[in-house]
Design brief:
3 domains, Immunoglobulin-like, 9-stranded antiparallel β-sheet, single chain, alpha+beta, 27 strands, 8 helices
């Protein structure tokens, strides 16, 4: 009995040892497999300068490039504006190709997508030796794709999928795009938009009360609100071509560029001034002249716009002096071209800063009140006795508290109209008239008339008929009357 028991125990130990052996052997084999998968092997390599020709076949596209005298050209059309940086980027992906796994003697090329490769690359060196890389299906699990080299189907390589992705492109992707000048909105002095129905123009105007004027296509003009001008001109800082279309300008009518909308932008840039110092200047003067100085230079950009693309996403366009046609985002262009005078008209009833005026005259309940300002010197209470300037507000030559003045004047400059109606006519006398005056500049009168249960009709001497919320006007009248009452006590 003891002998049989020992035999059984020995047998169990042997079974356990064999099981441990096979487990360890399996682990070692898996480790070897993992090490094999993680091993990176360079399977193709060539120096970029040694490439004489490069052919890339991707889908229906076949691109042939020639490399000579350190310059790349598009073989099918030597006049094509090939982007040197774009083609060098493509070349960089084929100069060194590494594999993370090699599949020996594959049974079925179709399984790897190599029966009909998605991309075929033929690299020919300067001695005429050719190498062909065929790229098949993508293995998303390992971010790789399968490749064969020189039609040797006994080996298939797993390479980084970025190789195939970067060699799938259109001709427009490698065109050298001419750049639209970088224009900051604050540097613009004039914008004109020439359309078939007429020309609209926004321009700096020293005679305008806002410093800007917008002239509509019908010839009418309005002072353009400076904040609205800033919003509009900021659109030019984002201008950029989206896609290259063609360099063939023989048939511009295809793109609507034979009768284009013309956008002309005048702007200014700061450039380094030329050194005009004479050679016999003193060393001190020479040192001063070495300091960097700039001058303001006037520039102009002229953009031609044609038709929209079929999906209306883009416009065809080109710069007047450039040699290619491109597309540009329709949303950006429409923000520039689809404007009229209402887009630049301020919604403020009378946005005139008192600091910029000589006087403001109020007529209310048959009384006239003239507001002016005086600058006086005030001696400091400090021991140094320095004097400072202080502005006093005067109404009919009587000082009014700054707070009292601002209480009603700020209501005027902040007041906005709800709508404009040229057909609305006042009846009766104005409940208040305000004249804003600056010698040689602003001279505008604004009259307030009761209109209906909701609005006052506010008419200014520029011809605007504005509907203003009745509560806002009542608040102004109350603040003004209170301030005048305090002043006369």
């Amino acid at each position: 009995m003891k002998k049989n028991k020992g035999l059984i125990i020995g047998t169990l130990i042997l079974v356990l040892l064999l099981a441990a052996y096979f487990v360890l052997r399996s682990l070692n084999l898996n480790d070897e497999d993992d090490q094999e998968e993680e091993t990176t092997e360079t399977v193709f390599e060539i120096d970029a300068e040694d490439i004489g020709q490069l052919q890339i076949v991707s889908g229906d596209n076949t691109f042939d490039f020639t490399h000579s005298d350190d310059t790349w050209s598009y073989s099918q059309d030597s006049s094509f504006p090939l982007s040197e940086s774009a083609i060098l980027d493509k070349v960089s992906y084929v100069t060194s190709v590494s594999s993370t796994r090699t599949i020996e003697n594959p049974e079925n090329l179709e399984e790897y997508g190599l029966d009909a490769p998605e991309v075929t690359v033929k690299v020919t060196d300067t001695d005429g030796e050719e190498n062909t890389l065929k790229l098949g299906a993508t293995n998303d699990a390992v971010s790789g794709c399968y490749m064969s080299l020189n039609d040797d189907n006994s080996k298939i390589y797993l390479v980084d999928s970025s190789l195939k992705e970067n060699l799938q492109f259109d001709l427009s992707d490698i065109a050298d795009k001419e750049e639209i000048p970088s224009i900051t909105g604050s540097t613009i002095t004039s914008v004109s938009i020439q359309k078939p129905e007429g020309t609209a123009r926004l321009y700096q105007d020293s005679s305008s009360e806002t410093g800007w004027t917008f002239a509509d296509t019908d010839g009418s003009t309005v002072p353009a609100d400076s904040s609205l001008v800033s919003t509009y001109t900021s659109n030019f800082s984002t201008l950029a071509w989206t896609n290259y279309v063609t360099y063939d300008l023989s048939n511009l009518g295809t793109y609507g560029l034979d009768n284009p909308t013309v956008i002309t932008v005048d702007y200014q840039v700061e450039e380094e001034a030329e050194d005009t110092d004479s050679e016999d200047e003193s060393s001190e003067d020479s040192e001063d002249s070495e300091e960097e100085s700039t001058v303001t230079v006037d520039k102009q950009m002229v953009m031609l716009l044609g038709n929209q693309t079929e999906d209306s996403t883009y416009y065809y366009g080109k710069l007047q002096e450039d040699s290619c046609v491109y597309t540009i985002a329709a949303s950006t262009i429409q923000n520039i071209t689809e404007v009229n005078k209402e887009d630049f008209l301020s919604t403020k009833v009378a946005d005139y800063s008192f600091a910029d005026l000589d006087k403001v005259t109020f007529t209310r309940n048959g009384e006239t009140y003239t507001a002016t300002k005086e600058t006086v010197e005030v001696e400091s209470e400090d021991e140094d006795g320095e004097t400072t300037e202080e502005t006093k507000y005067m109404i009919n030559d009587k000082e009014i508290e700054t707070t009292d003045f601002n209480n009603f004047y700020n209501l005027i400059t902040a007041m906005t109209w709800q709508s404009q109606d040229e057909n609305a006519q006042p009846s009766g006398d104005a409940e208040m008239s305000i004249n804003f005056y600056k010698e040689g500049g602003i001279n505008v009168t604004v009259d307030f008339y009761s209109y209906d249960t909701n609005f006052y009709l506010v008419v200014d001497s520029k011809g605007n008929h504005m509907m203003v919320n009745k509560m806002d006007v009542r608040e102004l009248f109350e603040a003004f009357d209170n301030a005048m009452s305090e002043l006369n006590q």
